[in-house]
Amino acid sequence: MHPEISTSAPEHKVLGACPHDCPDTCSMVVTVRDGIAIKVQGNADHPATNGALCTKVSRYTERTYHPERLLQPLRRVGPKGSGQFEPVSWEAALADIAQRLGQIANRGGRSAEAILPYSYAGTMGRVQGEGMAARVFNKLGASRLDRTICASAGTEALNQTLGNKVGTRVEFFAESQLILIWGSNSIGSNVHFWRHVQTAKRNGAKVICIDPRRTETAEKCHEHIALLPGTDAALALGLMHQLITHDWLDHDYIARYTLGWDALRARALEWPPERVAAVCGITTEQVVSLARDYGEAGKQGKPAAIRMNYGLQRTRGGGNAVRAIACLPALIGAWRLRAGGVLLSSSGYVPVQAAALERPELLAGRNPRTINMSTIGDDLLRPASEAFGPAIEAVIVYNSNPVAVAPNSTKVVQGFAREDLFTVVLEHFQTDTADYADYVLPATTQLEHWDVHSSYGHTDILLNRPSIAPLGEARTNTQFFRDLARHMGYTEAVFAETDESLCRTAFGDKVDFEMLLTQGFAPLPVPEAPFAEGGFPTPSGKCEFFSERLARQGQDGLPDFVPNYEPAGADARYPLAMISPPARNFLNSTFVNVKSLRDIEGEPLVEIHASDAAARQIADGAVVRVFNARGAYECVARVSDRARPGVVNGLGVWWRKLGRDGTNVNELTSQRLTDMGRAPTFYDCAVEVQRI
Ligand SMILES: Nc1nc2c(c(=O)[nH]1)N[C@H]1C(S)=C(S)[C@@H](COP(=O)(O)OP(=O)(O)OC[C@H]3O[C@@H](n4cnc5c(=O)[nH]c(N)nc54)[C@H](O)[C@@H]3O)O[C@H]1N2
Ligand SMILES: Nc1nc2c(c(=O)[nH]1)N[C@H]1C(S)=C(S)[C@@H](COP(=O)(O)OP(=O)(O)OC[C@H]3O[C@@H](n4cnc5c(=O)[nH]c(N)nc54)[C@H](O)[C@@H]3O)O[C@H]1N2
Ligand SMILES: [Mo]
Description:
With 692 residues, this protein is α/β, with parallel strands linked by helices. It is 28% helix and 18% strand. The chain folds into three domains: 74-149 and 350-457 and 470-509, Rossmann fold, CATH 3.40.50; 153-344, Dimethylsulfoxide Reductase, domain 2 (3-Layer(aba) Sandwich), CATH 3.40.228.10; 576-691, Barwin-like endoglucanases (Beta Barrel). It is globular and about 70 Å long. Its cofactor is Mo-bis(molybdopterin guanine dinucleotide).
């Protein structure tokens, strides 16, 4: 047991941090009695957390002490994917894994690139994430992983427009007079932001939601614009058209602090409201009225702020959509006020010391290839070639559940089912991915390890102290990689660094570590109104409507509407557009196996509008088959006005094995990538729905 954990007092509290992939990154207070965590609560002293956790994380003890927690290392005995395992000792598992990886890496040439790490944000911790792990993969010379599965289209778009992932501070939305919630279900996925919206509403703000689905957020806004998925750039260009024709522009701001206005102006004038309405599947009045609200707020000097979330960048034109929306605040000079502007992510403010954590010098001059995690299905099935390099022979999975979350599951499953693929999975539970492992290794949860966290919503750094001892034989991810390094014969001192030391390494002297130790969080220095007087971190220092860098890559230098790969519509072979946004009580595929949360969600379902249901003789509660050329998924239909005509909503990434027919929504999604950032197009997916 760790010395910092007091075991003398029968009951005590430990400060931690929520590890999940969510903009809120809450400060947690864990109550421990006799070495057992009995309660997890939101820290009342941390302003962003405000004393409250979401429903799912307040069940974190239920997840930690879940009867199905993996508590010992397992070795596969049956065929791949059969889920048949036998217990094995850590030492035996490590020795075998080291030997297998060594055999691949030591064949010479680029053979080490046949080894692939696969990880994402199961924990957002800097220590249990890519620190020690990256050191081992760098030393091996393994393939690198392009971590695109969530946010990279929006990231690239913000970089090209504002210069970084920065923007309006969340807490200042409370002072806004007009809030556009664009492609985000704040109440479901970012609930601590919603508090600021409520404050703004009480102070007279108007709140408008732009989302194909009538979410719990949309129904609490003053207006809801239910556009077709993937048409946001058209709407943004249409707003610009109206701002221009009504002269609701801040000419001074545009002249001083933007680049490419004449060209953008010409592009926007191609988007009169009628055209926008037709493309977006909304009314002309909705376009005009939204533009008037936004334009007049600017003219009257009222703060207007846009909260985007990643939901709107999961279609082919996702990067262009984010770029078009990110241009809007400059047009009305909204950046002049601290409660104006736009926020997609605040992570650009985070001074993470990536090189100190990951040690790229261990590559020793090698430059391994990069594999895109979003095309893992195809890539696992790809033979060796000049262009691709060696076929993938080994995958080490941690902090991720690719068999459930990656697009085009048929391919992903086929890939992981290869008998000649050596797969190691570090997990809390026997997930869909763990079923395909050769070794399943029990990992610690956030209550059992040290870590340090940043947020992509607020701008504080948080420390997570362990509150209980590891359960069973669970080990931290870092300990696995340290042990693996030892078994591989790596002797560099960097492979001995402890987790507490890694917590300090993550932000170096950029964060007051003493403050983290005493109060659990430390605010970063961030400007109040970052672009009130320009100063964008782009090459030109301006808000780049026109991006020279994009033009040089052969892309359109201006934002444009890029239609979906899979346009739905009555004439299409698959006439319904399917989106698959998060379920409120799950976190991607995490928590699906926590029964109390699964009971709230019920069972896998698609929401379908009454008109689309009637045309297919589908009654509420009927079992349906959702299908396209890639696959089929069986679930229950919920006939509901949460779905607009022409669009069905397949909520949540269920565990395949807990689904009705052993599949989930990703049976239907494709491996095609976005216009920018090489990201998946989960919400660009045409389907048909049929009663069974
Ligand atoms: N409870 C819960 N919270 C979560 C998650 C979870 O799974 N559950 N996931 C976390 C993760 S990984 C992330 S990346 C973040 C953000 O995750 P996001 O995926 O951004 O999730 P949401 O905030 O729910 O926003 C998605 C919203 O976008 C809408 N949408 C879909 N397509 C379009 C479109 O083309 N245009 C527009 N305008 N809207 C569209 C969806 O209907 C949905 O309401 O949330 C995190 N928070
Ligand atoms: N159809 C569809 N697919 C989607 C999405 C969608 O909206 N629609 N959303 C996408 C998005 S935004 C994202 S971010 C991805 C998310 O995909 P993933 O990053 O794979 O996220 P999770 O499904 O939450 O799986 C994380 C796993 O990590 C494990 N884990 C957590 N903490 C630790 C730890 O400390 N150590 C170890 N070893 N394991 C740990 C958990 O038990 C869990 O099984 O999914 C994407 N997939
Ligand atoms: Mo995500």
